[in-house]
Amino acid sequence: MGGHLLSSRGYVNSACLLSDVSPGQIYESTQVCGGGGAEYIAQARAITELNGPVTGGIDPSVQWEVGLNLGASAGRADLVHDDGGTLEVYELKQWTNSTYANTQQQAEAYVSALNTVDPEPRAPAQLGSGLSDSGWVDSFLTPVPGFPTCFVAGSDQPQYQYRLHVSWVTTPGVITVWYRDLPCFDPSTQPVPVPEPSASEPLIQAPVPGGDPTPVPLEQVPAGIWGPAPGNGIPAPDPAGGVLGGGGSGETLA
Length: 254
Prior knowledge:
The chain is α/β, with parallel strands linked by helices. The chain is 13% helix and 30% strand.
């Protein structure tokens, strides 16, 4: 990649990379793209965004979990995109991750490692900006981990409580995955209750590694009723036990 021979591609469930995705989709659980939870879903979706509509697989210019030697230790860059002359590096983290505050330093270390991995000059690496330059903001829903249930007013049919995830580039090279648990609603018949500013929270913000908090771009989250992500169904608990509306992941939701 860019003249470098590097190990890459791992951890993310390949089934999450087989179809194009669009903002505003529902997953059956946080685990459908791998054991890293919602971060893996967000990573898979960013991969497909960088990849574009490629039939039959992922373009070689997009790599993930790229193995790098960082001196005393090894690391893996979440996303590396060869844009035709430069390697753009992104580190993606959920804002509640215990190492989120160090995400910028991680991305910078990966850029440095790529720029010194070979004795001869190769395609230079830099902190990724292409996704932000294009205005990319992604969003998806999952049931809240643990699958707590709730009831919509006037209904005796339980629903899973849902979590809204929003991903975007907060600083060059850093993709933040913000989330918020939503009020109870039926995703098959009701629009997603996207959070809105209120008297108690006039500005909904996310922390930024090494910088000031930034507004969450909720105005770019699609309104209305969302459909399932490719290979997924819209899960709903059955009062008699089991799951109604489960889809393609083969996972038991309980």
